[in-house]
Design brief:
- The protein is of the alpha+beta class and 135 residues long.
- The protein has one domain (3-92, 123-134): Nuclear Transport Factor 2, Chain: A (Roll), CATH 3.10.450.700.
- It is built from four helices and four strands.
- It has a four-stranded antiparallel beta sheet with strand order 1-2-3-4.
- A hairpin with an 8-residue loop joins β3 and β4.
- The two termini are 25 Å apart.
- Residues 97-114 have low confidence and may be disordered.
Amino acid sequence: MNETDKDLIFSESVKAGKRIYYFDVKQSRNGDRYVAITESKKINEGTFENPRFVFEKHKLFLYKEDYEKFVETLLKTVEAAKSGVAPAPSADAAEAPAAQETVADAQPVEAAPQADAPAEKPEKKSFLDKVKDIF
């Protein structure tokens, strides 16, 4: 087992077309845990006759002091993407004027009435919810 394997606490990957997303929980030398999210994208740098595939990687490191804000904002963003409805600005909106412009430009979509709606199945627990439970 090499040094990086000892630092790895949890790992899960998501395959999505030419991309793979890796979600890793790691531990630093001082014992703090953090989340490393890696996007790996397969790219052909060769020719049609002589393909040469390489993997372009992008990493994001998320530290414990940012977990709640990151997860909250990501969930709002995903919900807005799914529904087409921009959420109401939060108290932190003053800190992000660019985000306010994006929200202001979004066109709301009317929701269907919820009266007599059938009981919904419980949602699957997302990776981010699992990570929140770890910390």
